[in-house]
């Protein structure tokens, strides 16, 4: 029996969805009125004028990377393998964001006006290669969107008995509305709101489990309960069958699959490139590093807390429910009753809707710039671009709902898609990275290597399933070892292929064609007259100093060196230096060590909250003050209808976040 009523399910999905849609639409209007940010400019709609600052970019990265799977699969892995499961989920999906910092800054250097990563592929290799990578990119968005809705609808249905098909269609509804009106800036602001709510709920769960719950209440009691649970139900292939060890073969295998799969969904997903494109060049690297480390806290802290609590309380959850990601709502309901169930419902709703908005704007960008402006109406500008992108937001929102229903009816769940995604998407990763990082890679290498990698990955996956289980079914192909074989083949095979083909006939690309990618002319857009607001003289929102081309290049080169060093060091720490010695030692945590582990996870959660929930507000405090001052003056009747009628002659000019309020003194 569901813990919550159907009314609660529909209330959350429709009510909160509508609330966010209305709020974000109003925020979009406020930004236009008080900061002159015109979302109907195609460059503003798709790229936010490439001026988003570090805190907001980091928050958006966390939100885009916080799928339903982040919350649901991470807790499932902790329940399945113990403490090593939550760690390998977190580490295996963090390193890609950290490494993406390198791609982000190279994008700023070599294609500063690009709208999508596929524009770079087209400029370098031409039509045939462009179409190949377009297929991989769209496949990535489709797979990610399907996982979001499969996980979200499963939780909503499980907790409230809401019809799962209705959930698939209603979850994206509010997202479509605010994405339609506000573009990427609206998604960034919504991402911030969602990320803040997610961290608040995670803190509440953590404090409940480790401090206030009468069922557990302390790390020490949790330790005793986990030891008792492992004695009754030892974990296969874990050291001493314990839940309190990093020495888990199953978790290690999952960790490798996780690294492969998430490498593809970061490297080939326009949603992450979109954030790099929208970020200010000065902040891109730091934003990705800060966002990646902040995101680590979500699966690391939440799964360690909730997943292990499920084992500590010895809650019996079926294998199918574990695969569907239902550990989180089940354990939350057991710990906190209806309040826990409602909190987990809100948590998953926030994750699904925020990541869905990122996918919607990503698909809209791909089809607008890489299909419409490339093959259907080359050179289309302004109004035509906005109109087409709006139609894609609506169309893909409907498509992702239909696809989720089809997959649900065929028995494919969140866990299956999560481990399969690397087999399908990894082949494009290595050649795509080399497209931006290696001038020697040849066109033939870029074309052949992903196709060969995909073929080898599929063969390895299916042959291994047949060899181990004697049949090819959903059950046999979902096993750890078939998925491991497919993921490894898909990510490894393209590397020697592209090296050999490039060695045979290398190129010497000079990046001139990517530097020539132009921004879209918005001459067709009718700019609304912005109503000026009355602001005290000499009030200004600080702007970044304008740099010469030479100074900017020096800064980008410095940022590139920092990105390469820091991302590599952090990656080695998270996937080699931290976990592997613990795996090899066969160490089972002592009470003191486990308590320290819990303390570290809690500190990480609080630091991440400061980074992506508090810092963005501090960073944008001047712009926020201008908006609220303008709202106050409008409400009290002190605002002026135009600059001409303003006693101070105030006016506003803006370029995204680089907004400056200029006040003309009375003569």
Automatic annotation (TrEMBL):
What is the organism of origin for this protein? Umbelopsis vinacea
Which residue spans traverse the membrane? 12-31, 52-74, 86-105, 131-158, 164-184, 196-216, 287-310, 331-352, 388-409, 415-437, 444-464, 484-504, 562-581, 593-618
Q: By what name is this protein known?
A: Urea transporter
Quote the InterPro entries the UniProt record gives: DUR (IPR031155), Na/Glc_symporter_sf (IPR038377), Na/solute_symporter (IPR001734)
* Subcellular compartments: Membrane
Q: Does the keyword Metal-binding apply?
A: no
Q: Name one GO molecular function term.
A: urea transmembrane transporter activity
Q: Where is the composition biased (Polar residues)?
A: 643-657
